[in-house]
Structure formats: C-alpha cells, structure tokens
Amino acid sequence: MIKVLVVDDHDVVRSGLTALLTAELGIEVVGQAADGPAAFAEAERLGPDVVLLDIDLPGVDGITVAAGLVERLPACRVLMLTALDRPGHLRRALAAGAAGYLLKSTTPARTADAIRRIAAGGRVIDPRMHGEERAGSGPLTDKEAEALRLAAGGAHSREIAADLFLSVGTVRNRLSSAVGKLHARTLVDAVRIAKDQGWV
C-alpha cells in the first residue's frame, strides 16, 4: 500500500481527495493536514510515502513545506496539487525537491496514477505545464527574489537585513532593483506582480 498524507487548507478539498483516493487500489490515505506546521507534524508521525500538497497554504506556503519535508524525511516524496499554473511556481516547486506538479483541474484517475508513479521513484508534471520548467525564470535574481519574498511576508528592510545578514542599504538596493525590473510603481505592486507570476 502507498501511504498518502493530504495537505490542503480547504476542508472540502481534503475530504474529497481522501474519498477519491481511498477508492483507489493500493493507495491508503493515512492522514490530513490543513497547514505547514500540521503537515510537518503529521508527516513525521505517520511516515507517508507520498505527501499530496497544495501550494497556497496559510502562513508557510506549500513550496517551503515541500523543501522542509524533503530535508526532514528524505524517503517521503512530494506531489504538488495546485490551482497555480504559473511556470514560476512549477520551477520553484521542483527546485524545492517536489517530485511532481499537478493542476487541481486534473482527473482523479490521473492524480492516483501520479501518486503511484512518484511512489515508484518517478517524476510527474501536468501535461499542461510541460516545457514550462525550462522556460525563463523571470527578471529577478535569486537574491532579489529572496528579499522580495521576505518583504511579501511583511518584513521591513531592517528585519530582512537581519535575516539575511546584510546591511539595510544592500536590502534596499535589492528591493529597489526588483521594483525597477518589474516596472512596478511601489514595493507592494512589485510583490503583487512577482506573486502573480510565481517568481516569489
């Protein structure tokens, strides 16, 4: 049996996925979680083979959760199941160690097949996203994206500087550069653009 942990912040989605997967031969849903901290706790407690993980979670986003799961539980495989169809999200998920990326509009049969393939060591990318993982990664450097990601979480320049062990001036330069590259009017606008494109 392939043991699966379902992580999504919507009760109806978690319940629906659990019901659909329970009907599949060889797959057992061993647990559910609604956010990142619960996902870590349940994964460590249950030792699933595959974690079916949404990106858009409250607090800690699913890509950050995926990276943590891969680091803490190397035997556990992560399959992102999301409504977000931006190339930036796909590339970040794969870079974080996710073994698969499916859109929520996929069929139950395709979801179950993806779980089986990933549990067997394979990699699955939704057919509608093929080729996108090799597309351009957007105008931001990794350092600019990192600073913008922290700003998106509500951190001020001084807090970002402390987190990244940088001077406040360096952080302001990176954020200013990001605003310019995205042709944004303000930092808030730059965060919105970068999030929409999946770059942060």
Give a verbal description of the structure.
By secondary structure, the chain is of the alpha/beta class. The protein has nine helices and six strands; from the N terminus they run βαβαβαβαβαβαααα. The protein has a six-stranded parallel sheet, with helices on both faces. Strand 1 (2-7), helix 1 and strand 2 form a beta-alpha-beta unit. Helix 3 (62-72) packs parallel to helix 4 (87-95), helix 6 crosses helix 8 and helix 6 (142-152) packs across helix 9. The termini are far apart. The model has no long low-confidence stretch (mean pLDDT 89).
The mean pLDDT is: 89
| Gap from first CA to last CA | 36 Å
As a percent range, the share of strand residues is 5-15%
Tell me the helix content.
Answer: 40-55%
Radius of gyration: 18 Å
Identify low-pLDDT runs: none
Query: Order of strands across the biggest sheet?
Result: 2-1-3-4-5-6
Structural class: alpha/beta
Largest sheet: 6 strands, parallel
Pattern of helices and strands: EHEHEHEHEHEHHHH
User: How many helices?
Assistant: 9
Q: What is the count of β-strands?
A: 6
In one word, what is the shape? Answer: elongated
